[in-house]
Amino acid sequence: MKVSGDVCSNGTLFITLTVEEDTMRVPCVHVPGKRDGAILISYKGLGALGENDYEDTEEINSPIITGAIISPHTVNLEPPVTFYLRQLKAIPPSYIVKCVFWNTKKNVWSKHGCQTKKSDRANSTLCACNHLSTFAVLMAPSDIQEDEGLFVISSIGLSISLVCLFLSLLTFALCRSIRSAHTSFLAALCGCLFIGQLFILFGLYQTDNMVLCAVIAGILHFSLLCAFCWTFLESALLFMTVRNLPALNYMTSQLSNFPYLCIVGFGIPLIIVIVSAIMRSDAYGTEKYCWLHLDLIWSFLGPVCVFLMINFTLLVLTFLLLRKKRASFNSKDSSMKHTRLLTIKALSQFFILGCTWIFGLFQFGSGSLVMSYIFTICNSLQGLYIFCAYCLLNHQVM
Asked: Exposure check for the chain: N or C terminus, fewer CB within 10 A?
């Protein structure tokens, strides 16, 4: 506690109160009387008082403090009262901080009237509030930034990709001369991407009905995991092809195994989705998007990272085997050239379909809008790339 007459009478502009590492600065204009004063209270060991009025993923990351002044005017204060509140733990790069106060009428944490001026993310956060109450700092995952341009690019890109994926499916179905295990894998991949991108374009924002939104989120989860699983199977097929180059028609001869591989291509994602839904059925669908809550997002990103690492390993081993076999096979051998071409296409497909999702991991914090643009543009090229690489530039198709 400090009295105005002891501080402000000697020309000081602020009353500064400190409890441990928490500080409150009250402008002297708000306590003009000599017997006016200010008080700062810091509560030790006090946990969350209740729910906040935002996402349930937010948590308190500072001591809870109360500031008060001896004055009939404690609202709409100008200049505002400022607080330095220490962080209980360092803020992760993908998180933001919010200065909030305890709304006693609604029993929620609210940021109305408070601004987060700055935070060093490791030690303290500076808050400025135009009223006095009980305050704290909340830590929360930052939202993916969007703007009108991003929405337009996403809509146009997904529309083009859907058309290209549909044309690719038609090509694989109608061109009998190119039918093989490889094109069957590509057809399954195109089908999964087509369903996923169709629901992203038309179902991602269907949040009015939460049951429908949860179903859409589940379909998206399943279809996108299937797409990555089929890229893994394609890489495995190419690796087995290179190991069996003496069998010139190996990729065609394995077509009979395709129904069994469907059990893997669709079964593994189905198991992941079922387990995730049983553990956290409420995490399918959010207030903004029909997608997974952040606390369940690793049920998607985890398997995707595993698929990508296996894909990359298999493709590198495939290139090494091709290089080794060039000594024992004629480099002009049609099987050798065809397999090398497919491996190059698969590697580029790995970067187009897989590595673009890495940009999605950086759609938070500083530079998030730039990353959102890169992520959206790159993922919109998926269908176009498959159609160009495997249909338009295919000799047999032409």
From this structure: C
**Would you say 241 and 210 are in contact if contact means Cβ atoms under 8 Å apart?**
no
Tokens 């135009």 map to which residue?
Answer: 130
Please compute the mean of the pLDDT values over residues 361-383 and round it to a whole number.
69
C-alpha count within 13 angstroms, C-beta hemisphere, residue 330: 4
Angle of CA points 272, 265, 322, to nearest 5°: 125
Q: Where are the alpha helices (DSSP H) in 175-209?
A: 181-203
pLDDT digits (tens, 9 = 90+) for 322-368: 777 665 555 555 555 666 666 676 667 666 666 666 666 665 555 56
- In terms of phi and psi (left: phi > 0; alpha: psi -120 to 50; beta: otherwise), the region of 66 is beta
> What global pTM score does this model have?
0.65
Q: pLDDT tens across 254-285, in order?
A: 555 778 889 999 999 999 999 999 998 888 98
Q: Is the bond into 32 cis (omega within 30 degrees of 0)? A: no
> Can you give the pLDDT at residue 140?
78
Question: All domains of the chain, ordered by start, with CATH?
Answer: 2-141 (2.60.220.50), 148-392 (1.20.1070.10)
Number of CB atoms found within 10 A of residue 154's CB: 21
Residues 6+ apart with CB under 8 A from 158: 197, 200, 201, 380
Instruction: Look at residues 169, 141, 138, 149 and name the one whose alpha carbon lies nearest to residue 48.
Output: 138
Which helix (H) or strand (E) covers residue 172, if one does? helix 148-174
